[in-house]
Specification:
The chain is an all-alpha fold and about 80 residues long.
Length: about 80
């Protein structure tokens, strides 16, 4: 079983990868900024993991939309 620290580190790595590949999230940027501020304010590691998870979900939603668009373009 992973520790909270290992889970936290994994979330941070994943978030860095998403942010490195997508500098601007458009409509989601306001939500991203909100959760980044929350990340700075939280002290408990479980809360920090929750906030990181919310940020990752925002990036994954954008990735989902890109994959869907690619599939639609390919199968037209």
């Amino acid at each position: 079983m992973a520790t909270y620290k290992e889970i936290f580190d994994l979330h941070v790595q994943l978030l860095h990868i998403y942010e490195k590949n997508e500098m601007h999230q458009g409509a989601n940027q306001k939500r991203i900024n909100y959760f980044k501020k929350q990340l700075l304010l939280t002290e408990d590691i479980v809360q920090r993991i929750f906030v990181l998870n919310q940020l990752i979900k925002i990036h994954e939603k954008g990735r989902e939309e890109n994959v869907k668009w690619c599939a639609e373009e390919y199968f037209e």
